[in-house]
Amino acid sequence: MLIVIPTRNRIRELTNTLNFLESNKFFFKKIVIVDSSNLEIKNQIKKKIRKYSANIKVVNSEASTCIQRNVGFNFIEKSKYIMFLDDDNIFYSDAFYKMQDFLNNNKDFVGVAFNQIYKERKNILDNFKKNCITHKIGIYSLDNGGFSDSGWQSRFVNFKNDKIVQWLPTRAVIYRCSEIKNSRFDKKLGVYGYLEDLDFSLQLKKRGKLIVCSNAKYTHDQSITRPGFHFGKKELRNRYYIVKKHKLNRNLFFLTTLLRMLLTFKEGILGNLNSFKRLAGNLVALFTINNLDENY
After folding, report:
1. What is the per-residue pLDDT for 293?
2. For the whole model, what pTM was predicted?
C-alpha cells in the first residue's frame, strides 16, 4: 500500500495524521507527502518526519489538489494499492484493521472508500434532494453515494452496510493500482479542484465497482465555510465542465442549477449572508458559461 497525502500549510493536522499512521504501519509500505506549503512550513515538515520510523518521502509541488494527487502516481512502482488521504481526517482506532479485512476478502473492485461519519444537520437543500419528485425527474439521486445525469452527486456519509456506489470522495480512498495506472485527476478543474473526485470516479466506474467499506470509519470537519463569490463561480463552472466532458444531460443540469440557486437565495433570506455572495458567483458563471471552452 502506498499512501499519498497532499498538504498545504497545515502542519498540525498533518502531524496528527502521521501520528495515527505511525501506529498503524502494518497497513502500508510507504507514505508520500506532496507538499505545496510555504518555505517555513516546508522546513518544519522536513524536521517533523525525522521522528517517525515509517517510510516517508516528502515531494514539493505547486498548489493544486489535482496536480498534487497526480504526483502520487509517480511512486506507485510495484504497489498493489494506492490510497489518497486528506491531511485532516480523524480515523476510528480500528479503521485500518477493518479496511484490511475488507481488502483481504474482496477482490472485485476498482476503488473502495472509508466511511465518513457525520452528524447531519438537516437543511433546505437536504429536504430538496430527498424529495421523490426531484429523484423521478433525475435531478438528484436518493441513494447515499449516488449520482444523477444532471451532474449532481448525493452525499457520501454514514453508511450502514458495504455498498456499491456511483462515486468516491478522495478524502480517504483506496484504488487498485492495476486499474488506474492510466488515469489522472483533471488539472482543468483548477487549483482548488472542486469535484475532481467526482470526475475521477466517472472515469473509473466504467472499469469496475466502486465500493464503500462501512466498518472503516473516520470523521472530517464539515464546518469549513465555502469562500462565497469565488466558490459560487467555481462550483457551477466545474460541474458544467463535467457534464460536457462525460456527455451528461445539459437540460437537467440547467434545471437543477436554477432550482439550486433559488435555494441558495432562500438560505440568504434566512440569514446566511454568505449565500448571497455564492449566488452572485453562480450568476456570473451561468451568464459566462458559453465561454467555458476558452477557460478550460
Report:
1. 56
2. 0.91
